[in-house]
Amino acid sequence: GPDGQRRLRGGCEDEKYLKLFGAFVRVAFRIQTAYRSTYFAGIVGQWLSYGATFATLFIMVSSFESLSGWTADEVLLLYGISILSYSIGAAFFFTPAQGLAENPLGEFDASLTKPLHPFVHEMFAGFNIGYVSHFTLSVSVIVFALVRVGFSCTL
């Protein structure tokens, strides 16, 4: 069957894609950190901007004690999940989608000639490591909010 053929070809396809994705991420990281101070200033700027948004949201809802029955911690948790999902989606799809929409020069042809599905190539090649600031801040806020609402993980 297909699984047997996959093993005969030398391993799991998923492992190959993960290794390939890792290579694309390393290249993206090197490109975006070529000017380290600019890259890290961008991360700090995103943290300050989104951090101020989180703080403002928390302070505003706290001043009213609740918002339609939602506490400030619960609103913060929901907004953190929203920013987390945005950061994951945008890291993979914002740059490729923008490139395809604004590219009348036929550069997509390069993806069609690779020995990889064009969608996967565009997604990997367009991965934007800059969304790490959104990701780390939202995960931090989610953990903070979960602790404050008394969430306990039971496995």
What does this molecule look like?
- This protein has 155 residues and is an all-alpha fold.
- It is 74% helix and 0% strand.
- It has helices at residues 2-8, 13-32, 36-63, 72-101, 109-112, 118-125, 132-149.
- α3 (36-63) runs parallel beside α7.
- 15% of the residues are buried.
What is the secondary structure topology, with strand pairs?
Layout: H1 2-8, H2 13-32, H3 36-63, H4 72-101, H5 109-112, H6 118-125, H7 132-149
List keywords for this structure.
single chain, 155 residues, mainly alpha, 74% helix, elongated
Main pleated-sheet profile: none
SSE order, as H and E? HHHHHHH
**Helix coverage percent:** over 70%
C-alpha geometry: elongated
Total number of beta strands: 0
Radius of gyration: 20 Å
Mean pLDDT: 83
What percent of residues are in strands? under 5%
Total number of helical segments?
A: 7
The SS-based structural class is mainly alpha
Regions with little confidence, pLDDT below 50 for 5+ residues:
4-8
C-alpha termini separation? 36 Å
